[in-house]
Amino acid sequence: MGPIRNLLAKIGAINTLYREPRIEMSGAVRLSLLVLRVYLVALVALMIYKFVQIVTQG
Fold first, then answer.
1. Which of the four pLDDT bands, split at 50, 70 and 90, describes residue 51?
2. What spatial distance separates the first Cα and last Cα of the chain, rounded to whole Å?
3. What is the pLDDT of residue 58?
């Protein structure tokens, strides 16, 4: 159990270290990232929709 606890402690330390980003983002960068997230969610939704369509056809 010792090595597993050490590994989890290291992972927790890394997570707390990088919890907040160190770089400054401009408004354009934030908008671009938001648009990319929406695009990704839309693509995943379309893939799920198409999968459901294929499965329910037979």
1. very high
2. 50
3. 63
Tokens matching residue 35:
């648009």
**Tell me, what amino acid is at 7?**
L
Residue type, 22: R
Write out the H or E segment, with its range, that includes residue 41. helix 27-57
Amino acid at 8: L
Q: From residue 51, give the alpha-carbon distance in Å to each of 38, 42, 44.
A: 20, 14, 10
- pLDDT by residue (tens digit) across 9-49? 999 999 998 888 788 889 999 999 999 999 999 999 999 99
- Tokens standing for residue 44: 């995943």
Distance CA(38)–CA(44), nearest Å, equals 10
